[in-house]
Amino acid sequence: MISEEVLELAGYRCRAIKGDGEGTPILFLHGYSFTNHVWVEIGLLQRLEEAGIPFLAPDMPYGMKSSCDHRSIDIEENSALVGHIVDDILGEPPLIVGASLGGVVALHYVMEGGRARGLMLVAPPARGYRARIPVLLIWGTVDTIVNEDDVRKLAEELGAQLLIYEGARHPVYLDYPDRFREDLLKFYSSVIGGRSTSTVNPLDRSVSNPHLGQDFIPGSG
């Protein structure tokens, strides 16, 4: 069952969409220009409900259109809020899906010792991060915010798998909603189905190139 609620944590009061289910939850962090309803608009949360996978999709304080009574674009503050959500609401390490600025927040959270089973990141404008958990990076070839060289470098730094969506913009999930939903389910299955965080080698690097197959900036991601 999908429901809306208000999260009151660490001085913030933010709208959230929650889905019940069994197993490891998925935590969604939207991009700067979007709200949590973007995941509803592309049919993703409905697909997770069908699959019985629990999830939480909050509006985040950094969002330009977020329904939060306190706004902040500070990465540290948003990362700390993710920690409160994981510890106080979810109660276990989730798989985190972070779009653009949401991906930067997710990376910072993990780098600071935050708990997560894996990261699925959509074109985060970031460099210099490391991860010891499974990471899937997704990037579109007509992205005007993050270029190919930067996303490939980040994939190498993270030891991440890289999926490239031909002809997709920065928010690839708007151009390929069906593919994005299925890629998430496949990644979730691969991570939760047997790869524990303690056995992942951060030097294992699998960068795929199918064919070669808006968020720090207001108005993007």
What does this protein look like?
This protein has 221 residues and is of the alpha/beta class. The chain has one domain: Alpha/Beta hydrolase fold, catalytic domain (Rossmann fold). The chain has helices at residues 38-41, 44-51, 75-90, 101-111, 148-158, 172-175, 177-192; strands at residues 2-9, 12-19, 26-29, 55-58, 95-99, 118-122, 135-140, 161-165. It has an eight-stranded mixed β-sheet, with helices on both faces. Helix 3 (75-90) packs across helix 4 (101-111). The longest helix has 16 residues, at 75-90.
Condensed summary:
The protein contains 7 helices and 8 strands, in the order E-E-E-H-H-E-H-E-H-E-E-H-E-H-H. The chain has helices at residues 38-41, 44-51, 75-90, 101-111, 148-158, 172-175, 177-192; strands spanning 2-9, 12-19, 26-29, 55-58, 95-99, 118-122, 135-140, 161-165. It has a single domain, classed as Alpha/Beta hydrolase fold, catalytic domain (Rossmann fold, 3-Layer(aba) Sandwich), CATH 3.40.50.1820.
